[in-house]
Amino acid sequence: MIANPLEQVALLLLGSALLLGLLRLLLGPTAPDRIVTADTLSVIVTAGLAVVALLLLNPVYLDVALIYGLLSFVGVVALARAIEGGRR
């Protein structure tokens, strides 16, 4: 598994975005800020799984990324409804 420079840059950027997102998740002043950050982190992890699938030449990771993205979307919607109070 030797990554070309573009893949290395992608992993570096995703890793730094993940660290900054975790910092924002811990320091977010309000609950909605934390929920938006959690949604952003889930997108970053999904992109990371896609890059790993490319690196390992294994399409199974794309399936995992798809399921993870779907579950994280449902989770964020549930959290947003809980904060909103369940109103429609």
From TrEMBL:
Q: Which domain of life is it from?
A: Bacteria
Q: Which GO terms describe its molecular function?
A: sodium:proton antiporter activity
TM spans, by residue? 6-27, 39-58, 64-83
Entry keyword ATP-binding? no
Q: Where in the cell is it found?
A: Cell membrane
Keyword Transport attached: yes
Alphabetically list the UniProt keywords: Cell membrane, Membrane, Transmembrane, Transmembrane helix, Transport
A single Gene Ontology CC annotation of this entry is: plasma membrane
What is the protein's membrane topology class? Multi-pass membrane protein
Q: Which family is this protein grouped under?
A: Belongs to the CPA3 antiporters (TC 2.A.63) subunit F family.
Protein name, as recorded: Cation:proton antiporter
